[in-house]
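Archive entry. Fields below.
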Amino acid sequence: MLELRLVQGSLLKKVLESIKDLVNDANFDCSATGFSLQAMDSSHVALVALLLRSEGFEHYRCDRNISMGMNLGNMAKMLKCAGNDDIITLKADDGSDTVTFMFESPTQDKIADFEMRLMDIDSEHLGIPEAEYHAILIMPSAEFARICKDLSSIGDTVVISVTKEGVKFSTRGDIGTANVVCRQNTTVDKPEEATVIEMPEPVSLTFALRYLNSFTKATPLSNTVTISLSSEIPVVVEYKIAEMGYIRFYLAPKIEE
Amino acid sequence: VNQQSQITSFFSKA
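PREDICTED_STRUCTURE:
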């Protein structure tokens, strides 16, 4: 028996909006520690890892580890029917091939339940090694989204270079080139507006902008985004989910041949 | 030219 009750149902709505266009079908894994997902996009260039810890749920019952295969587009369609202030409960009986989403309005005067068929998805879990990053960038998530959007109107790949001066996002295309430099700025009145660069050593990597733009769909989840870079390994773009967990996007770099 | 690499060449099957 599985019953997860999330008072801040809008978090789950936002999570689905941020992954449904990147990944079609995925397994949600439920265990005593929490509700998680790990899935690659169809071209195996990007990977998303989601964790919602059990403590973040108002009620978390998971009698045994269970993996539920879902079509994320259909799941998003059902979650769109939940109000932003609704409490969302996810229920599944042992051995059942469906999952039920229950939406309760804050005043409990409206209760809806949507039942979705589960799928069999054979997805291998990948081991993600803990890496020492050459550069860690913490910046306002809206700013990062704006940079990715603006640069993708000029070119389709971005070179992200981190030096002690700051971080530079560069692109080039048929119509010309664009460079955006963000300097470390911690003299802001609100901490979430700061741009922090921890850079043990300079690094420069090239990525496809369309994936970064897809990752920025998670912007509504957090005011800040953490971008961790190391030479020759995937970048990690992480959005914290209100002291419940995180959503991490990994993107393989484009490498000089 | 920049060749797009794949996640699976960095993360092995657990």
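CURATOR_NOTE: Chain A touches chain B at residues 40, 43-47, 124-129, 157, 206, 208, 233-234, 250-257 (CB under 8 Å).
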